[in-house]
Write a structure and sequence with these properties.
Length: 315
Amino acid sequence: MWLLLKNPEQRATILTRTTEIMQNNLWMYLILCMFIGFLSVVFRGLRSVLMIEPLGYKVTKINSYHAAMIGYLANFAFPRLGEVLRCTILQKYEKVPFQKSLGTVITERVIDMILFGVLFLIALGLESKKLLFFMEENMSLTVMFSGMGKLVVFGLIVGIFILILLFRKKILKWAIYQKIRKFLKGFWDGLISIKDLKKPFLFVVYSLLIWVCYYLMFYVCTFAFPDLAVLGTKGVILASLACVVIGTLGFATPIPGGVGVYPILISKAFVLYGIDENLGGAIGTIIWTTETLMYVVLGLVSVLIILRKKDKIKV
């Protein structure tokens, strides 16, 4: 955020645009963005219910939603903490073993990565020149293992494997081995639960709706910035698609909630469409703040509700 806001012109642009949005009643589009974001979490909670069902547990929709929303909130504190906390909540309030729900969460992430890949390919097909130029100019923003890092990881894996082979007879007698084996068995059951879905069509629908919501969250916010009208309707639609793809990389970084990174990526994405970098940074900051505010407020509401819950709510 400091890198973004150290520029006086950038700070002034953000304040000016925020004031214009409030004075011209354009904040309604930001509220609509929040509502769409809320729907995306609802769909994620409903999809989670379908994933856990083949394991023999009937999770209530309301508790699944609260667990998903609290997970989003937790991720702002520490990356991937949300997944752990989400499984913990389902274990406490729905009696779903932690390792099994964790397996379903990992599978959900894989599905999301596949859908993001599809979205990326669509954006690349429609805006290949702009996206390829962006990747060439900003390759340093991509978090990658160095050659030495890969070698170290590979060495550790090989070393652990050799130790297991050498001491396998003793390891089999350890109580902790039995616990780890039980954990991994439950994790694997959750991981492959997708193959036994009772409502696969509904699962696909929820998965698609989640990503449709992600796109619409950004697209509806563009109406709060009249300057973008110069791009035309088609231009705004394509620019929104590119921004969603590029902005998602910001949330994928180790930085919690993409703080600071997301607005910078959005500003660079809009430069590809001839939009001033300061204006692009202001748009990214305001949209990021809007989405973050929604996740934080609704996440805290879910925390309060789930902590006061005495009996499971059946829906």
